[in-house]
Design goal:
With about 325 residues, the chain is an all-beta fold. It has strands spanning about 5-10, 15-20, 25-30, 40-45, 50-55, 60-65, 70-75, 80-85, 95-100, 105, 115, 130-135, 145-150, 150-155, 165, 180-185, 190-195, 195-200, 210, 225-230, 235-240, 250-255, 265, 275-280, 285-290, 295-300, 310, 315-325. The strands form seven sheets. It has a four-stranded antiparallel β-sheet with strand order 3-2-1-28, with no helix packed on it. It has a four-stranded antiparallel β-sheet with strand order 4-5-6-7, with no helix packed on it. The protein has a four-stranded antiparallel β-sheet with strand order 8-9-10-11, with no helix packed on it.
């Protein structure tokens, strides 16, 4: 029996999983060749919640039935890993895919693709750079941000045709190790890294960092991965936090005042690793799902005030998405 919302999980070595009854019953999504593969990114079409995209190590996949079945799209991205997938909220025929390395764009729903001219460092401090996130401004599709692991933030003002490398997010090289980004039009752009969450109020020209408390004495930083702005309340945000990657401890950090103050939420069981990613859906804004890298799934149904841990656990999680049923 279907519940109010569905949860979609992308894993390392276990392919795609979906639950349609609020976290109770799980099924492996059916695909041509990704059954035991690695899925690193998930995206939901904003105008059609039954449609999803999944970026994997073997290509880009699309589901038309809320994650029950998946078909592979023909793209020039393979054999590169796909680390991020984004659908333009104003024109869903436009899709962006971030790869290891590079980034691609389709303007016809995935039929044809162009590689984007993002001039990242080669090599970067971790070898091959990864485009971990691409954000399309919901108020202006011409304004697009890309976060690179490890080369900071790039910005386009023409929908991805050309890109500018924005100023460094900090003095440390790995402050430019961008893991996730979010955008609140007219207010700020956010980016997470191993050092915390960086905020820019001037379109990426300068950045201010918020550093979360260390999990252990002697930790050099408090590592951050995913960031999520609540769909119906831009003052409420969540950051996936931990003591490292994969780490041995984690937390969900929450603000309800636009980032002026933060506190870790109360979880029923301590995370076994960094909280890697978070997901929500505008049609069910009170449902927030967070996952640890090593397989824990936490759900809040009241906008992040209270949380429960699902019984189902996975080996290693890289992506999560939520759809309203």
């Amino acid at each position: 029996m279907a519940g109010r919302y569905s949860i979609h999980i992308g894993t390392v070595g276990q392919g795609l999983w979906v639950c349609h009854d609020d976290g109770e019953t799980w099924y492996r999504g059916r695909t041509d060749d990704i059954g035991e593969g690695t899925v690193r990114s998930l995206a939901v079409y904003p105008d059609q919640p039954d449609r999803l995209l999944a970026g994997s190590d073997s290509g880009l996949y699309r589901s038309e039935d809320n994650g029950y079945h998946w078909e592979q799209l023909e793209t020039p991205i393979s054999p590169r890993q796909i680390w991020s997938v984004t659908v333009d909220p104003n024109n869903t025929e436009t899709i962006f895919a971030g790869a290891r390395p590079g980034a691609f764009r389709s303007r016809d729903g995935g039929e044809n693709w162009d590689e984007l001219p993002i001039d990242v460092a080669d090599p970067c401090p971790i070898g091959i750079a990864r485009t971990t996130v691409i954000v399309v401004d919901p108020a202006d599709s011409q304004r697009v941000f890309a976060g690179i692991e490890v080369d900071g933030v790039f910005k386009s003002l023409d929908g991805g045709d050309s890109w500018v490398h924005m100023p460094d997010l900090g003095e440390e090289v790995f402050q430019g190790d961008v893991h996730c980004m979010a955008r609140v039009p007219g207010r700020a752009t956010y980016a997470t890294s191993p050092f915390g969450i960086a905020t820019s109020t001037d379109e990426g020209e300068s950045w201010d960092y918020h550093h979360f408390p260390a999990h252990h004495e002697g930790d050099r930083f408090s590592y951050c991965r995913g960031v999520l702005v609540k769909a119906d309340d831009p003052d409420t945000m969540f950051v996936g936090n931990g003591d490292g990657i994969p780490g041995t401890a984690g937390a969900i950090q929450r603000t309800t005042d636009g980032g002026r103050s933060w506190a870790a939420v109360n979880l029923p069981q301590p995370p076994n690793s960094v909280i890697y990613w978070l997901a929500a859906h505008p049609a069910a804004p009170e449902v927030i799902v967070a996952v640890s890298l090593y397989g824990y799934v936490y759900v809040s149904e009241d906008g992040g005030a209270r949380w429960r841990k699902l019984d189902k656990e996975f080996g290693e999680i890289r992506a999560v998405a939520v759809t309203a049923n």
